[in-house]
Design a protein that fits this description.
Blueprint lengths: L2 H14 L5 H11 L3 H8 L3 H8 L7 H11 L3 H10 L13 E4 L2 E5 L13 E7 L15 E8 L2 E5 L2 E5 L4 E5 L4 E5 L5 E8 L8
Antiparallel strand pairs: 1-2, 2-3, 3-9, 4-7, 4-9, 5-6, 5-8
Length: 205
């Protein structure tokens, strides 16, 4: 095989095995004192396949991976945590942010919620409310918690039976279960940054 063919074969292997978790499977197997043969029999696959997976020569089908994880008593989160750590940064360029309207109110997404992260799932967006207008969606309440800061203008937060006046620089947080709306009480556009957990508005299927 020529050097160029060698490189092509190596590149092809990398494409086929995007997740390199074989070392973790091997380490856990050896830690528990299991042989390749035992793990293969318990998972219902060949010993050769387990060996190739541990050496990152092949990427297993999801059912095979689930079987191996079950035999070794490890979670998929543990297997994929290295991959998740290698991609922690999310950047949304200024001209690429998703927007949606609610009447005259505009919401501009600041980050895309991570649907796979059930523990830390949240969303953040800019709210722009024209003079004397208000939000509507929270008027019945919903699960979770909200936090916001007024960037520009004057506002009133109507929460349950109370009204809270807010000015530029003021921040607020509250359980989202209570009925709530944000009203622009000024004569110019109100701008606020809002964070909601779990994600409600910009959720993607």
């Amino acid at each position: 095989m020529t050097p160029s063919q060698n490189n092509a074969a190596t590149n092809e292997t990398k494409k086929k095995v995007p997740y390199h978790f074989g070392e973790k499977l091997r380490q856990m197997r050896e830690h528990k004192g299991y042989t390749l043969k035992y793990v293969a029999q318990m998972a219902g696959v060949s010993e050769s396949l387990v060996s190739q997976i541990e050496r990152n020569h092949v990427s297993p089908a999801i059912d095979t991976l689930l079987s191996l994880a079950d035999v070794l008593d490890i979670s998929l989160e543990f297997l994929f945590e290295e991959y998740r750590r290698q991609h922690p940064v999310q950047i949304i360029r200024k001209g690429e942010r998703a927007k949606m309207g609610e009447g005259e109110v505009e919401y501009e997404e600041l980050l895309k919620p991570d649907a796979n992260d059930k523990t830390n799932n949240f969303e953040a967006y800019v709210i722009r409310i024209p003079a004397h207008c208000n939000t509507h969606r929270g008027s019945s309440g919903h699960i979770g918690r909200e936090m916001g800061i007024i960037v520009k203008g004057k506002a009133e937060l109507h929460y349950e039976n109370s009204v809270y006046a807010m000015e530029e620089g003021d921040s607020v947080s509250f359980p989202a279960s209570g009925p709530h709306t944000l009203q622009n009480t000024g004569n110019t556009e109100l701008e606020a940054i809002w964070i909601v957990t779990p994600a409600q508005r910009f959720v993607r299927e």
